Amino acid sequence: MEYTLTPLGHSLSEAFCPVWLWAEANYAAVMRARAAFAGAAAE
């Protein structure tokens, strides 16, 4: 048996695609912000 997405599943992936692209494009900035927050919280 092979798994494939239904049309409903494809519509959900279309909704999440822009979020995934944003996350990819901003990964380094998010990691820097997380590190800065962790450093500030430790002080």
Explain this structure to me?
The protein has 43 residues and is mainly alpha-helical. 84% of the residues lie in helices and 0% in strands. The protein contains one helix and no strands. The protein has one helix at residues 7-42. The longest helix has 36 residues, at 7-42. The radius of gyration is 17 Å and the shape is elongated. The mean pLDDT is 92. This is Transcriptional regulator. It comes from Deinococcus multiflagellatus.
Concise synopsis of the structure shown:
By secondary structure, this protein is an all-alpha fold. The chain contains one helix and no strands.
Q: What is the residue-averaged pLDDT? A: 92
> What is the helical fraction, as a range of percent?
over 70%
Radius of gyration: 17 Å
Poorly predicted runs: none
Please work out how many helical segments DSSP would assign: 1
Largest sheet: none
Beta-strand share of residues: under 5%
Distance between the amino and carboxyl termini? 55 Å
DSSP strand tally: 0
Give the overall form.
elongated
Which structural class is indicated by helix and strand composition? mainly alpha
Order of helices and strands: H
Keywords, separated by commas or semicolons:
elongated; single chain; mainly alpha; 1 helix; about 45 residues
Which helices and strands occur, and which strands form pairs?
Blueprint lengths: L6 H36 L1
